[in-house]
């Protein structure tokens, strides 16, 4: 069980042998004290605005199949989105898609700073420590973040099923993402696209910029349409499909 | 006094109003337990290989004059260089310039990992927390690291007195450094150069890549020749010369 006052990064299989480090920063829709529900009803707390439904299940399935370390977050992204800088309007949004977030309106600077200190800073410190440890042990990480997206956004259906996104800070940053995409095309029937349903230009690679880019680590952000991973069985099935995709992409990286 | 088992980042004036955040990651030549002297004699422990002599004094003088936050390190760079990635040969060097570091030879992986966990990870977590807090409070940082360099390196004199270095990850990363250089030329008699006595290509911008680049923060690494800041009086004098340089560079940044 989660200590409700401990919002550090959760680390599973810290000493796993794979170079892949899986990250699921939108794993949780927990709204613990001192913040509580932020004024959201039960439906909104379950919705994709609060977390990435299914992503943690897929990430755990991948961690088991790849024998990889997994780092995930223990609270809802609406308390502080760990994939947004603290000064981004998206970090503690007052509105997400078409839902107001009452508990994020009119936040005093000290309240916002307290969330950064309680949630954002410890999560990133924990992930950074995992990466630093694996670097010094010669297990140079390949960072793979696992996300899900809603099949309909502002009324428009999204046909893509599997998106692979890379950061754009440096030209070589696309290498691992392209290898994952090529493997997904070759090995799965998924409708897969590069930098879809959004891209680094939409500010979605903050975590990769913090943790992968400074060390020149290969990386990819996986985006799975959440209707494909709605229950335990489909999450396990998706992990079963994607684990060999990541293995092939790792082999391509070594061969490059 | 420093708790000998607490190697966290030291933070002075955390709530100072200036946007400048000063960092001195090579501030200390302390060799505390559990590592001790690494087999170095007293002269080597005092030498520039162990720390940046004079840099902390200048940084404190700048912090006082600019009313700025200062973050500095409590242990020698030879235990773990905080401006090198954990997997860099320079992080725990076996030789520095012409001096062997016996305590860094033949380090077991677990010993190296323990240094990363005790020194590297907490320092960077502390600095990251300072930056995140100031971001959310609207005090978007300008990161200024303060270093010193030896006037003679492998027998060759270094004529430059004041170097201003920027990271090279993105084209716009040179903006603040160029403003500092222009102000130094206009306002001081110092022999000042850009990206001297070394540059980002020499792996010296690791800290900037971790903390400035992901947030797009303006930044500069200041390098002062250490014979110019050998005692308290000359450190204060240098801070008095450089504080208005940084103030002018901040103004140039706002005007750009």
Q: What's the helix and strand layout?
A:
The structure is a homodimer of 256-residue chains.
Chain A: E1 10-12, E2 20-24, H1 42-46, H2 55-66, E3 69-72, E4 95-96, E5 99-100, H3 109-136, E6 142-149, E7 152-153, E8 156-157, E9 162-165, H4 175-187, E10 192-194, H5 206-211, E11 219-225, H6 232-255
Parallel strand pairs in A: 2-3, 2-6, 6-11, 9-10
Antiparallel strand pairs in A: 1-3, 4-5, 7-8, 9-11
Task: Give a structural overview.
2 copies of one chain form a homodimer. Chain A has one domain (10-255): 3-Layer(aba) Sandwich (Aminopeptidase), CATH 3.40.630. With 256 residues, chain A is α/β, with parallel strands linked by helices. In chain A, helix 2 crosses helix 6 and helix 4 crosses helix 6 (232-255). In chain A, strand 9, helix 4 and strand 10 form a beta-alpha-beta unit. The first copy, chain A, has 6 helices and 11 strands. Chains A and B meet through helix 3 and helix 5 of A and helix 3 and helix 5 of B.
Number of helices of chain A: 6
- Oligomer designation: homodimer
Can you count the beta strands of chain A? 11
- Assign the CATH topology of chain A: Aminopeptidase
Mean pLDDT across every amino acid position of chain A: 96
Which runs of chain A of at least 5 residues are low in confidence (pLDDT < 50)? none
Q: Which structural class matches the secondary elements of chain A?
A: alpha/beta
Rg calc of chain A:
17 Å
Q: What's the CATH architecture name of chain A? A: 3-Layer(aba) Sandwich
Content of β-strand of chain A? 15-25%
Largest interface: A-B, 31 and 31 residues
Helix content of chain A: 25-40%
Per CATH, the superfamily of chain A is Zn-dependent exopeptidases
Q: What strand line-up does the widest sheet of chain A have? A: 1-3-2-6-11-9-10
* Level-1 CATH class name of chain A: Alpha Beta
Distance between the termini of chain A: 43 Å
Number of domains of chain A: 1
């Amino acid at each position: 069980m989660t200590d409700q006052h401990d919002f550090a990064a959760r680390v599973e299989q810290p000493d796993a042998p794979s170079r892949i480090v899986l990250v699921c920063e939108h794993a949780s829709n927990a709204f613990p004290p001192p913040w509580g529900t932020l004024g959201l009803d039960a439906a909104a707390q379950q919705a994709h605005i609060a977390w990435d439904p299914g992503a943690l299940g897929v990430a755990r399935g991948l961690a088991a199949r790849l024998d990889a370390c997994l780092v995930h977050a223990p609270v809802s992204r609406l308390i502080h989105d760990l994939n947004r800088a603290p000064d981004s309007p998206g970090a503690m949004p007052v509105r997400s898609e078409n839902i107001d977030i009452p508990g994020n309106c009119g936040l005093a600077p000290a309240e916002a700073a307290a969330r950064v200190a309680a949630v954002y800073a410890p999560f990133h410190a924990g992930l950074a420590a995992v990466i630093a440890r694996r670097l010094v042990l010669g297990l140079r990480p390949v960072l793979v973040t696992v996300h899900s997206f809603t099949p309909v956004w502002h009324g428009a259906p999204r046909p893509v099923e599997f998106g692979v996104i890379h950061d754009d800070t440096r030209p070589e940053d696309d290498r691992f993402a392209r290898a994952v995409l090529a493997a997904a095309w070759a090995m799965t029937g998924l409708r897969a696209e590069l930098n879809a349903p959004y891209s680094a230009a939409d500010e979605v690679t903050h975590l990769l910029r913090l943790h992968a880019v400074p060390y020149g680590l290969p990386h990819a952000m996986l985006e799975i349409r959440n209707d494909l991973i709605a229950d335990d069985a489909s999450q396990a099935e998706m992990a079963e499909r994607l684990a060999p995709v990541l293995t092939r992409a790792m082999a391509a990286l070594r061969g490059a």
